[in-house]
Specification:
The complex is a heterodimer of chains A (about 110) and B (about 110). Chain A has about 110 residues and is mostly beta strands. Chain A has strands at about 5, 10-15, 20-25, 30-40, 45-50, 55-60, 60-65, 70-75, 85-95, 100, 105-110. Helix content of chain A is about 0%, strand content about 55%. Chain B has one domain: Immunoglobulins (Immunoglobulin-like), CATH 2.60.40. In chain B, about 0% of the residues lie in helices and about 55% in strands. Classes of the chains: A mainly beta (about 110), B mainly beta (about 110). The interface of A and B includes residues 51 and 98 of A.
Chain lengths: ~110, ~110
Amino acid sequence: DQQVKQNSPSLSVQEGRISILNCDYTNSMFDYFLWYKKYPAEGPTFLISISSIKDKNEDGRFTVFLNKSAKHLSLHIVPSQPGDSAVYFCAAKTSGSRLTFGEGTQLTVNP
Amino acid sequence: DVKVTQSSRYLVKRTGEKVFLECVQDMDHENMFWYRQDPGLGLRLIYFSYDVKMKEKGDIPEGYSVSREKKERFSLILESASTNQTSMYLCASNRLARTDTQYFGPGTRLTVL
């Protein structure tokens, strides 16, 4: 069963606009969430994270929102830049070291 | 900077061959992980190790084994490669601290013919 789900395989936005990437989870034991970004032919790199005791975490152009009651998190990128074009994975963990990843969303930012 | 390296970027093997994928990290991390990435399926955990000679199965361990004889090195072994093991293989590592993010290598694109 897919415990972390990214329902949009792809998203296309104009440069300068907001990109919103969504992620849903089913396991209520998840208490830490991360977003990774992956360019072709490279490994994923960590972008931003949030603990379940918070509902928002911001780092520059990137903000992650967590809605625990809905078991939903989202990544906002404002403003979007062409260099943000990549696959974005959301991931979640419980008390251990294992991460459970979503399927990924391909973001394309058009100039 | 953390560095995770993988022995090959691209590999082509034949069905039935034994395949070794090697991963080395230089940050003295306790944990090491092997994932495969397939379109529409995201990253799926094959095996991980939290110490030398220790290993735990991930979500899809069938057809794979691992070896961790030294802290910095974690090997993934395909005992008898099959075409459905054609994939991108990613190694990662991190410390034992609960919120420590995983650092990934560049990946090995394995094709089994």
